[in-house]
Each structure stands twice: as C-alpha cells, then as structure tokens.
Specification:
Blueprint: E1 4-7, H1 14-19, E2 26-30, H2 31-36, H3 38-48, E3 51-55, E4 70-72, E5 79-81, H4 83-91, H5 95-100, H6 113-133, H7 135-146, H8 177-192, E6 202-205, H9 212-217, E7 223-228, H10 240-258, E8 262-265, H11 270-274, E9 280-285, E10 307-310, E11 315-318, H12 319-328, H13 338-343, H14 353-356, H15 358-378, H16 381-395, H17 409-418
Parallel strand pairs: 1-2, 1-9, 2-3, 6-7, 7-8, 8-9
Antiparallel strand pairs: 4-5, 10-11
Helix pairs in contact: 3-7, 6-8, 10-17, 16-17
Amino acid sequence: MSNMYIRFGMHKDRDVLMQMRDGISGIVLPAHILSHSADATRAAVDYIDRDFFIDPMTYIFTSDNIKYYLTKDKKDSSIRFKASIEKLTTDYGLLDFFKSRDYSPLLPTDFTSEFSRQFALKNYNFQRDKLNGQADSAYKKYADILAKVTAEEYSIIDHKPVLITPPYFYSSKTGDTWHDVNLRLAEETSKLAAENETVAPVVLTKSDNLTPSLLDSYSSYKQIILWVTDLDESKVTNDKGQINKLTLLKNFVELARQNNMDVINLYGSYYSAILEKYGMSSFCNGIFYGEYKNFQTKVGGGAPPARFYISAIHKFYIIPVAVAIMQDNDQIFLQEPEETQEMLDGLFENMFQMIKDPSLAQKHFLYARKKELEYIKKTDIHEVIDSLKQSYDMYGNFDETISKDTPLQLLAWYEALRTP
C-alpha cells in the first residue's frame, strides 16, 4: 500500500480517485468542503472507498487569514462569512461568537478552559458524525453513482476517520501563545477520544522551528501531522538556506522515528516520499496541486489547470512547456510509466489531449507517483540519493528559453539528503 494521501479538492475528481485507489493510502477531507457539500462528500468517500482523515482548517480563523473569508451581504451590505466558511463555523458552534464581535479573528486569550473544551468537542463530533449523518440524504441524491461500487445497504455504513485531528493554528516557535493553545486543544481532544482512536495533532509551523523541543512537546502522541509553511519542496534551489530547510525536515523526521513517533507531511513532494527512508510514515498532496501551501494563502476555488508531471525530474509543468521539454530531449518521455505511454499512444505530443480531458493528466500523475513510491521502497537510500543528481545531469539542463523553472530542486534534495 502507498504511503500517500490525496488531498480532496474537487468532487468531479472522484472518478479518477476511485479508478486509481489502489495506488493511494486514502484521502484528506478539508473540513470546509465536507461542511459545505456534505452529501456529495459522503458519496465520494463511499465511492473512492479508502481511508480518510479530516483537516479541521481552523487556522483560517486567525488574523492572518480571516479577512479572505469575509464578504458583504447583498441585501444590507453587512459583513458575514462566505457560504462554505459560514457552514463550517456553524458546525464548530462559533457563528454567534463571531457575529457578536463583528467577525474579528480569534486570539489566544479567547481560549479559556471552557472555550477550548467546547471547540474541541464540536470538532470531535464533526469528525465522528458529519459523514454518518448524511447517509440517507446522500444515498438519495447519489444512488446512481454509489450503485456502481457498493451492494450494501448504504445507510448502515459507519465511517470513521483513521485519525482524529484537533483544531490547530499557526505557531512560529515552541512555547509561544498559539503553541500553548494547540497543545491545550490536542489535550482536550484526547480526553474525548475512544481507546481505539488515534489523535494526531496538526503542527503548523516554519522550518526553523523543527527542533527537538517541538517534538518533545508532543511526546504524548504517537503521530503528528506536520505542515511546514515556509518550505516548498518542489520549488527550492541549491541555495544553502533552502537546503538547510530540507535538512531540518529530514532531521526532524529521523528524530521522530527515534522517539517512536510517526510523522505525516500534510503537503509534500517526491522529497517527502524519499523521507520514508528516514521515518516519514505518510505524506499528502493533491492532483495537479497541493505539494505545498503557505498558511497565509487564501483557500482557492475552481479547478486547477491541467499540468503534466515529468517523472524524470519529479516536477509539474503546464502542458505546452512539458511538450517543449520533451522535444528538447525525447528520452525524457521514455521515463514515464508504461500506462502513460500507452494512454498517449507512445507520442508525447498527444499530451495536448490532457488540456481538454484533465483526467488523463490526473491518471498519469497517479501512475507516476505510484512508480516513484515503488522505486523508493525497493531501492537502497544511497542509490535513491545518487539518482537525483544523475537525473539533473541527464535531463535537467534544458534550454531556459523553454522554461526558467529548471529542476534545481533535484540538486537541493541531493545535497540535503547527503547532509548529516
């Protein structure tokens, strides 16, 4: 089984995920999507039929983010949350709270013992009950879809997330006020969890906070979900500062393994896949997107553009650029999975079909990622590391008139993995 979770973003992606589900561990459900389109999400979870856990998305309620999710009411121009966030806020029992203070962001001082307890309780109930509460209505709306994949009585299926994730917020360093809030919410969630449930706190921070003291503060948990907001693994260059960020992540994962703690990277690339060799239990990404996210970036809407994942250099490019790269070096296409080559009738020029039918590009990415994961599992780590530089030397020096976005991340990964 893969150690990769796919971050669920578009309901229309469910067909591809169902068809390719043998190559993934499961899916990550953003809480605002589940809250806003609960029936469709319930149907998608049954349809895809893989493990899942829920990202509470609570970080959006702080001063760095809340402004993105407010809008003016068309009737009276009053301020309110946008629809999906208003539903999520209602599910968390916080809508009246925000209305009473003109939608000002949450502050650490808001988290009294009672406020923290109630927030943790609402989040826990949401994760345990929201999908199950939609069984009957989802079956009525999506019976034609679900009939394709299940013969069971739909209403009796009891969905349980593989992890319970407490509410969380960005913390810049161990011991700051938001770090203390996060620990309090995780502790309250642990009090609610059953013996057979695993509570996995989300640690949203920056790379220079990946320290032994941070890990020690979560020592009572068997698993954490890590989100490093200032590290875009697939966009790094061979700059020493960026290599250092990669090294800090690697060392943090190694230390966690030594302390019998599993780490899931909430946003990761091929570099995170390699970190399985150092103790990374799983990593998450989307299809076309989701290998990285800065927590201060607005949650997007709409479908991302189709991109082609070039396996030889472990990087996404828009379709015309990917074709131009392969025209510059036609050996690159031969590194793609056999399934992709067959899908394109052996001609990389047929990649343009993916613009009209993005599901082809999605399937390709999942074929490619599955091939990468299988390679990492069966190959000695030193060979995996050496292959990064070899790939750059063979395929990474394409003409910058084709794209200035050259795969320097390969050299950065190579140096970081070689650094003690």
